[in-house]
Amino acid sequence: MPTLYIHIGHEKTGTTAIQRFCANNREKLEEYGVLYPSIGYQDFVHSSLVNCIHDLDNNTFLEFFPEGVDTEPENVWGELVKNAASWDKDILISSEHFISRLREKGVEYIKAYLKANLPKYQVKIIAFLRRQDECYVSRLSTLSKAGAVQGVNFWESEVLNKNIYYDYYTLMKLWANAFGSNSIILREYDRESDVTKDIQSIIFKSGYDLIDVKSNRENTSWSPVATHIGFKVNSICKRMSVVERRNKINKINNLLYEHGEYKHTFNGYSLIDFVLAKRINEIYHDSNRMLESEFYNGNRIFRELNDSEYTKTVSHLSDSDIIRALFKIV
Fold first, then answer.
1. N or C: which end of the chain has fewer CB within 10 A?
2. Rounded to 5 degrees, what angle do the CA atoms 75, 79, 83 make?
3. Which three-class secondary structure state does DSSP give residue 76?
């Protein structure tokens, strides 16, 4: 029986790298027995499959999709069926918005549609997960890039109130209820590892060599200081477009990384302190234990939090510190 692998995310776990790799190596993947189809609006990712059913749980479509794209589920998901009609081996589809945006109604739609239209395929759900404090820090960078005008305190309340975005057991249980606990494949995301090799180790049958690829990180997080500056700029320069703000902070971020002054002035700073990181992990402790018990053979999925990971925070930097340092490098 062939397998349909649905790589559902999570966000901030190298999903763009996986998707670009798969899109750029379609022919080689097919040679190895895995189809990575081109479906919908974006060629390299399958967010169109999410967009067309996004309104079931959210009453609207994905905000970044342009007007005029096909939002009829039968049409969009029908593209997957058409691809499968001329392919009798495994298929991989990928979008981080499967896990971050869809809830019970969306997942149930997928279950019913696949059962009716692709009955010969067994379904496997792949999720890369990141320890909650690290996920939160990376999310802050994304929010700053996206132009969020709310301060860090606003988003801190979100993570501390056990938001479902960080409640991995609840998220995975939705998919397990639809496709069975045995369908779930979990991996810890490690920023230093190569996620393209991780995904290959899951989808390839034994005996195939991994496809080597040079690491080319996309959609990487800003440095803590650049993220901190971004939130300040967003709150002050509201008349400036989000794109213009992001482009300017991107330049600052690149300067911070490239210029030697960064190592002396800004190196070692983090967005949150150890106390908050510990508190975040304590809040999701029970969720993680249930996740491990049901979907990870009872093993620990995340490495332990170490106080050396969070030494000094950007809150210790004054605006004058930042301005003086930036004036030295621009």
1. N
2. 160
3. helix
CA–CA separation, 216 and 195 (whole Å): 11
Helix (H) or strand (E) holding 178: helix 168-179
CB 76 within 8 A of CB 49: yes
pLDDT, tens only, 53-92: 999 999 999 998 999 999 999 999 999 999 999 999 999 9
**For residue 120, what is the DSSP state?**
T
Measured from the Cβ of residue 73, the count of other Cβ atoms closer than 10 Å reads 18
Max Cα-Cα span within the chain: 64
pTM of the model: 0.92
Q: How many CB atoms lie within 10 A of CB 32?
A: 19
Residue 188 or residue 326, greater confidence: 188
Do residues 306 and 157 lie in contact, with contact meaning Cβ atoms separated by under 8 Å?
no
Decide: 271 and 230 in contact? Cβ < 8 Å.
Answer: no
Domains of the chain as residue ranges with CATH: 3-131+166-203 (3.40.50), 224-329 (no CATH)
